[in-house]
Amino acid sequence: MVCFVLGSGAMLFSKLTTDLVITPIENMIKKVQAITKDPLKAAQDEEEKLLLEELAENEAYEEAITKAEVNIEKVKEI
């Protein structure tokens, strides 16, 4: 029983360490390498990524507003 608890704890710690520490550091290293190779392209890629995220966010807002309007109409009918 003790071995199972310790083993599970070690596996959980390992996964959390990878998710919260290792992966972000690897992503930062990739970004720094991209900036080192071609600073202008890296900046353009980052701008494009932010624009796509903003468009997706706007679409989500529009979808939520549409659903809210439909629900309001349903409530008015009742």
Quick one: how many beta strands?
A: 0
Tell me the count of domains: 2
How many alpha or pi helices? Answer: 2
Mean pLDDT over the full residue set: 92
Low-pLDDT runs: none
* Largest sheet geometry: none
Written overview of the protein:
The structure is a single chain. This protein is mainly alpha-helical and 78 residues long. It folds into 2 domains: 1-37; 39-78. It contains 2 helices and no strands. Helix 1 packs across helix 2. It is flat and about 60 Å long. The mean pLDDT is 92.
Could you give a short description of this structure?
The chain is mainly α. It has helices at residues 2-37, 39-77.
Write the layout of secondary structure elements.
Layout: H1 2-37, H2 39-77
Helix pairs in contact: 1-2
Short key terms for the protein model shown above:
single chain, 78 residues, mainly alpha, 2 domains, 2 helices, 96% helix, flat
